[in-house]
Amino acid sequence: MVEPAGNTPAIRVRNLRKVYGTKAAVDGLSFEVPRGCFFGFLGPNGAGKTTTIRMLMGLAPPTAGEIELLGLPMPAASVDIKARIGLVPDESLLFDHLTGGEFIEFVGRMYGLDRAVARERARELLALFELDQHQRKMIGEYSKGMRKRAAMAAALIHRPQLFLMDEPFEGVDAVGARLMKDILLEQVNHGATIFLTSHVLEVVERLCTRVAIISEGKLVVDSDMAELRSNSETLEDIFVRLVGAERPAETLGWL
Q1: What is the pLDDT of residues 143-153, one digit of tens each?
Q2: Domains defined along the chain, listed by start
């Protein structure tokens, strides 16, 4: 296994670009995510968030630019990188014909855990995410919120150093979301790094210590949350001011 460089950022991106046809979905992004940081990656629909995180996950090759995760180059060291990261993609790519416990155990085995260790951790994670009362239910019968919890549980089984999460709270009810937030905050307190995309700005404002905002594939803001909100604006106010439509509100006479 390749060992990463010493005191390096959890994520380092330089001049990242992804072109589809003649359109640049991501256009020259450069940013760094410090280790132990809860990092929010924001932007309006179509801004390039999912394309960026897919490149970080190794699911889409960049057209140009450089990516380093945990001090290792992507994709050259992708096998070593993937052993150290946990993924929660936007689409819950779960196996519908397995139970939650079977799926989590399978992921653990994929990461090289001993069968007995993977089975015990899967059992503990089911209980932690309050899915143990559905032990016999197939994932295909899960609600969207339950699928998100199962995906996050599987991402935790090998104790990763870095989490890449695309809309992890989408479709999750308030109780489940609170549970997931508390677990993620505990991971950060233990030294992990979390890279999170979300449309729910209140969640980002509460959880994240640093935030980047992109628009039309370009970086608009990269700042500590405290500095960004130094003038008492909410994150929603800042977001709308930076990337919102610059036009007066319309009214309908009949409405």
Answers
A1: 999 999 999 99
A2: 9-84+160-242 (3.40.50.300), 87-158 (no CATH)
